[in-house]
């Protein structure tokens, strides 16, 4: 058993499951957005704004944002543990990544509900 | 007749400041020799050449090495399988410290093997004669017990190169599953508890280098998938 305190789920199993579930959610969200853009040729601000004012779309978007945050945390944490061998550098980069993910997530939520 | 061009990794830490490649011309007399035979012929030219070998028939797992870029056992790899353009390059197994020439320090590899407790554990009273298995239960061990610990798989795995102290590696995990799958072993939950961190099992990215190089044709990636399934079933 290897102890870890900066990975998302504190367990390889939960990180692994989160990574897969979030990947499926992100794939569905991407397909939906791409499909929506392809099926609305004369897309204007009103249609785009209307889409994001619907409660189901906000729930779907928030789910995608949280999935993206979790996915990025698990993935980038893994990259740092592979390639950054100096503990000081690794912990610093991990904390910067986690902080950036938090900021982007809150920013995304304010964009979603702010308008 | 043109001789086989053999390029050998040489390093003697007592005399060399850095490893280098030494060129040999080996006369195979047109025969499709095994790579190990070519090493013997090269050793006749330079007695200082060091490599491990023992059974010379793919059973002991001593002569795992990197042949023209791919890990394998020198004793059961014919030249026709690896030589391209009359050139053979031999290097030690990647990722492990080199002791001398083609001999590597297998310490970390064995340490990971020891970690998965590669022996049967059973807390029930021993029966008078033996612990029986049904043929179906025994079948689950096929493709697992045959491993000879040559380290070809683990040393071809980038996850093992980056974290050999934390990631168990394909060879260790294949043996781990051999005991997880054994109907006579009762330590399953304790074994799984030791494996649920982000490194021991989950550092595997499923690139299947291990499957591509295993000289015994075993499939560690499949065993790792089974361990994940068991962890998931136990924890959800």
From TrEMBL, chain A:
Entry note: cofactor: The heme is bound between the two transmembrane subunits.
The keyword Cytoplasm is annotated on this UniProt entry: no
Species: Halomonas ventosae
Molecular functions per Gene Ontology: electron transfer activity; heme binding; metal ion binding
Chain's role: Membrane-anchoring subunit of succinate dehydrogenase (SDH).
An annotated GO BP: tricarboxylic acid cycle
Protein name: Succinate dehydrogenase hydrophobic membrane anchor subunit
Cofactor: heme
Gene3D superfamilies reported for this sequence: Fumarate reductase/succinate dehydrogenase, transmembrane subunit (1.20.1300.10)
Cellular-component GO terms for this entry: plasma membrane
Residues where a ubiquinone binds: 83
Pathway note: Carbohydrate metabolism; tricarboxylic acid cycle
Xref: InterPro entries: SQR/QFR_C/D (IPR034804), Succ_DH_anchor (IPR014312), SuccDH_FuR_B_TM-su (IPR000701)
Automatic annotation (TrEMBL), chain B:
Keywords: 2Fe-2S, 3Fe-4S, 4Fe-4S, Iron, Iron-sulfur, Metal-binding, Oxidoreductase, Tricarboxylic acid cycle
Enzyme class: oxidoreductase
SUPFAM superfamilies associated with the record: 2Fe-2S ferredoxin-like, alpha-helical ferredoxin
Keyword Iron in record: yes
Start and end residues of each 4Fe-4S ferredoxin-type domain: 137-167
Gene3D superfamilies referenced in this protein's UniProt entry, alphabetically: 3.10.20.30, Alpha-helical ferredoxin
GO molecular function: succinate dehydrogenase (quinone) activity
UniProt-listed Enzyme Commission number(s): 1.3.5.1
Cofactor(s) of this protein: [4Fe-4S] cluster; [2Fe-2S] cluster; [3Fe-4S] cluster
Family: Belongs to the succinate dehydrogenase/fumarate reductase iron-sulfur protein family.
NCBIfam families in alphabetical order: dhsB (TIGR00384), PRK05950.1 (NF004616)
Descriptive protein name: succinate dehydrogenase
């Amino acid at each position: 058993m290897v102890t870890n305190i900066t990975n998302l789920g504190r367990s390889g199993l939960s990180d692994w499951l989160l990574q897969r579930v979030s990947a499926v959610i992100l794939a569905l969200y991407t397909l939906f957005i791409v499909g929506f853009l392809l099926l609305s040729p004369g897309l204007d601000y009103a249609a785009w704004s209307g889409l994001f004012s619907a409660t189901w779309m906000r729930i779907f978007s928030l789910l995608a944002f949280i999935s993206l945050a979790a996915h990025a945390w698990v993935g980038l944490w893994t990259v740092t543990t592979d390639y950054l061998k100096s503990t000081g550098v690794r912990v610093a980069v991990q904390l910067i990544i986690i902080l950036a993910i938090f900021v982007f997530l809150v920013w995304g939520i304010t964009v979603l509900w702010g308008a | 007749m043109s001789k086989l061009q053999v390029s050998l990794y040489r390093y003697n830490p007592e005399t060399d400041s850095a490893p280098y490649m030494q060129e040999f011309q080996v006369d195979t007399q047109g025969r499709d020799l095994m790579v190990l035979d070519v090493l013997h012929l090269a050793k006749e030219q330079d007695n200082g050449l060091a490599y491990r070998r023992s059974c010379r028939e793919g059973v002991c797992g001593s002569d795992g090495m990197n042949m023209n870029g791919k890990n394998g056992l020198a004793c059961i790899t014919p030249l026709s399988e690896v030589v391209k353009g009359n050139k053979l390059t031999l290097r030690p197994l990647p990722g492990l410290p080199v002791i001398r020439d083609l001999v590597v320090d297998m310490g970390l590899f064995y340490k990971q093997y020891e970690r998965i407790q590669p022996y049967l554990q059973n807390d029930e009273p021993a029966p008078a004669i033996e612990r029986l298995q049904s043929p179906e239960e025994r079948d689950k061990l096929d493709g697992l017990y045959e491993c000879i610990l040559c380290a070809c798989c683990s040393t071809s795995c980038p996850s093992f190169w980056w974290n050999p102290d934390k990631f168990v590696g394909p060879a260790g995990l294949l043996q781990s599953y051999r005991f997880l799958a054994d109907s006579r072993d009762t330590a399953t939950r304790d074994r799984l508890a030791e494996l649920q961190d982000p490194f021991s099992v989950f550092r595997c990215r499923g690139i299947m280098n291990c499957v591509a190089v295993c000289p015994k044709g075993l499939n560690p990636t499949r065993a790792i998938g089974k361990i994940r399934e068991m962890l998931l079933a136990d924890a959800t």
